[in-house]
Amino acid sequence: MLSFLRKQRNQLDAWLGDRQLAHTFSLTTYGVYIAAAKLIDQYAQGVCLDAGSGRAPYKDVLRARGVQVITIDVENRGGDLTHVADIQNMPVIASNSIDTVVCTEVLEHVPRPWDAMVEISRVLKPGGYLVLSVPHLSPIHEAPHDYYRYTQYGLQSLLETRGFEVLELKPVGGVLAFLGHGASMLFFSTLGAWRPLRPIAWFLNYVFLVRVLKVLDSLVGLSSVYPSNHVVLARRRDGTADTV
Predict the structure, then answer these.
(1) Residue 203, Cβ neighbours under 10 Å: how many?
(2) What is the CATH class of 2-236?
(3) Least confident segment among 56-60, 163-167, 221-225, 236-240
(4) Burial class (CB in 10 A: 0-12, 13-18, 19+), 2
(5) Cis preceding linkage at 144, omega within 30
(6) Using 50, 70 and 90 to split pLDDT, how confident is the model at 244?
(7) pLDDT > 70? residue 134
(8) pLDDT tens sequence across 101-114
(9) pLDDT digits (tens, 9 = 90+) for 227-238
């Protein structure tokens, strides 16, 4: 059953991506996208590195902002990839050459996130911005490359000891968002397995398990105690990041 759902999730991600709806898969993906897109729209500038870009869900937001976009990932997932590389080691990107880095839902899949943050700090210009998101509550996914979950305190420590000033760190979604992601996975991946029903499955999922659940989650989701995800705005400090 799980292998079937994962296979269907990959197919639905491609289907949604073609329609610029990838962020509507579940309340968690929707919440992270809205929060990160808002920060991108406010702070992205110059040359932007989308680190661990996947299918590049923020490309339209970035292009609307008028920035030059460079994408990097360990494999090409169909997002107009610029470089195939590991964000823990990015020699293809020159030091102090990037104005903004976007890195969303990536650090849980990196075995040495401290190395990734040193590299991101290295390529950013002093004063450059980082828009970052990570999960706190999440099922195992993309196994076996699923290594970490982050509290706000661990995340802040990771950033501050690698050359960043944290400007904004907030929870996105609560326990209902976490549970709703599993419900969307089951409902959308099952009903959406039949292509003719995908638009209907998407509509029902989006209305009830994204928009309606968002209202309920904001009321009783307890995001301050059970955050589903965190979204961060940070700025690279002058000087050199720690290397351990």
Answers:
(1) 11
(2) alpha beta
(3) 236-240
(4) exposed
(5) yes
(6) very low
(7) yes
(8) 999 999 999 999 99
(9) 999 999 999 998
DSSP labels for the chain? -HHHHHHHHHHHHHHHHHTT-GGGSSHHHHHHHHHHHHHHHHH--SEEEEET-TT-TTHHHHHHHT-EEEEEESS--SS--SEE-BTTB-TTS-TT-EEEEEEES-GGG-S-HHHHHHHHHHHEEEEEEEEEEEESS----STTS------HHHHHHHHHTTTEEEEEEEEE--HHHHHHHHHHHHHHHHHTTSGGGHHHHHHHIIIIIIIIHHHHHHHHS-TTTS-SEEEEEEEEPSS-----
> Residue 232: what are its φ and ψ, rounded to 5°?
-130, 140
- Count, residues in the chain: 244
Report residue 141 as tokens: 């996914």
pTM, entire model = 0.94
CB 114, CB 158: distance < 8 Å: yes
3 and 148 Cβ atoms separated by less than 8 Å: no
Closest among 202, 173, 168 to 17, alpha carbons compared: 202
As to burial, measured by CB atoms within 10 angstroms (0-12 exposed, 13-18 middle, 19+ buried), residue 240 is exposed
Domain locations in the chain as residue ranges: 2-236
**Can you say whether the dihedral through the CA atoms of 62, 66, 71, 77 is positive or negative?**
positive
